[in-house]
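LAB NOTEBOOK - FOLDING QUEUE
OPERATOR: T.R.
BATCH SIZE: 2
PURPOSE: Compare the predicted structure-token outputs for two unrelated chains run back to back under identical settings.
PRIORITY: normal
REVIEWER: second-year student, initials M.K.

ITEM 1
FIELD SEQUENCE / FIELD STRUCTURE:
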Amino acid sequence: SSLLFSFTICQKEPKNYEDLILQLYSYPVKLPKMAVAGPDDENLLKVLKLAKTKKIADSILVGDLEKTKIIANKLNIDISDFKFIDVKDSKKIVETAKNLIKVFTR
């Protein structure tokens, strides 16, 4: 699911994208890192761009780069600003994002 974020930065699992932004604004660490699995979602890309622009979170995206580029181009969002790990297999996407979260929390 696209809502697999680094829950270590959230007080509780976000109910939706707006809830995630609110939690990021209230997070005590400046510019927390997020691992985002499956960023090929229009609303999610909008939120990630907003978070990066407002400097409230830094995201590493894990997923299908080509699919994500197509959606980002449609929305006129430049994803070259994000670190991206290109993974096609959905199980590996989740596994990679979880591994990143472990690294972030060390």
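ITEM 2
FIELD SEQUENCE / FIELD STRUCTURE:
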Amino acid sequence: IFYFLYQGVDFKEKIPIFKAGGNKYFTSGSYRMAIRKYMKTIRYIQWISSKSPEKMDYEYVTLNMLSNEYHKITMDCMSNIAACFLKLKEYKEAKNMCDKVNIVCSL
């Protein structure tokens, strides 16, 4: 369904736009909006990297799904999400995101 709604859109062009949006929100102190943009960036990467997007797990990113370029962007976004949670003083969420970053890095 998702594919058909967005047919003809070049998702690869959207990825840096969403990440830059997250960076802009982070810089302005809008941490919740930054998290939303970073998560959207990760979802787009997962979607274009997945062979069956309707079955993928949006909670975790695995290295075998990602090219080196997408892996770096994903790691940046996940680290930035953790930083947002720290700024929001949501330490449990920040730790959980850092744990996810460590899992993905160790694969």
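REVIEWER COMMENT (ITEM 2): Residues 43 and 103 are 18 Å apart (CA to CA).
FOLLOW-UP: none requested
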